[in-house]
Every structure is written in C-alpha cells, then in structure tokens.
Please model this.
Amino acid sequence: MEHKITTTGNTAISPATSTRTFNNYGKGVQVCHADSFSPTVNVVLTSGGGQQTTLSSQYFNLIVGYNPFEKDHILIDKTRALTEYMSEDIREKFSGWTDAKIEEIKKLPAIITMERNTADGDKQQGVLAFITDIREQKNGINIHFQRYYPVPMNVLQGHFHELGMSSEWELNRTHWTIKDINLLEVLQDAGLQFFPSL
Model:
C-alpha cells in the first residue's frame, strides 16, 4: 500500500530569493529551502515553548520494525533501543535517557519503517520523520514523531552502505539505532525530491 504525506500549514515564497518555507504549525517542524543560495536544506524545529533549534545533519535515527503510518507514536522495547548496530562512541553520546541527551536525539532526523518484506518490497515505504518527544516508560521507550516525506524501501535497501548499515540485513531486524551519517544528503543523492514544485 502506498502512502502519501502532505505538508499542512503555510507555504511562503519570496520571489527575490526563491525561498520556500514549509511551516507545519502545531507540529514543531519548519523546513526552509533556498534555491538561489545553495541546495542546502535547513530544518528548524520548534518546541512547545516557541524555542527554535536547527536540525543536526551529522547523525540520524534509524527505527526499523514499526509502521510509521498507523499513528504518530511508537513504543520500542528497551532492549532494542540504542543497543545495537551502532558504535560505542555513538552509544555513549546518546544513551542514558537524560533530558539533555533526549534533546540532542530530537535534533536528529529519523527514518521509520517496518521490517523489510521481500515479497512486497517494491511497494513498501518508510518515512522521513522528525522526533517531537521521547518518554522513558516501564514498558519501553515511547517516541512521538511528525511524518514528513515517504521513503521507498528500495531506496533504503539500495543505499544501505551510504546510510551506515553494515548490510541489508539490518532492515530485517526490529531496532532503533543512531547512525553517524548526513541522512538528508544521502536521500537527496538517491534522487528523492523533498519539495514540490511551486
């Protein structure tokens, strides 16, 4: 089943600079793109208090084994949350569930997808998302997120090396990890067009 994601909120275009701004009010994500300056995508995350934080491009969250189209939050088993498929340095940097570490994780873009289904791989999709809240609970880690753009499984599978995976097998195992990779750059290089023609 194919899923489409639409950006709600205001879209502003400045003729002088060809700047495109997608502001998803109430969801905490604002994406800006300026063709006339460079092909750089700037993402500004806004908290409930109105503070703005620029998205980090050095790392990204990879969450496998959960349907990102059913609802806007998922519950991850603690034994599968930031415990595997990552370097010791990254684990030390982000693990621990302190307020400061949670705030750092929320600055990272995310790919959320079901485990790879080889029988339906051509139609299977994950999503580029932005984490809006992380809550440690007795029964797991509850992650709330805002979906932004669908990502076909064949893109993830075809670019597993560029995305920091040691093999395609990682897409077959339910887990949450963090990769030391510029996700938006990889997806753009893979031919995904994040912004509609205006």
User: Anything to note?
Assistant: Helices lie at 88-94, 99-105, 153-158, 183-189. The chain has four helices and eleven strands. The chain has a mean pLDDT of 80.
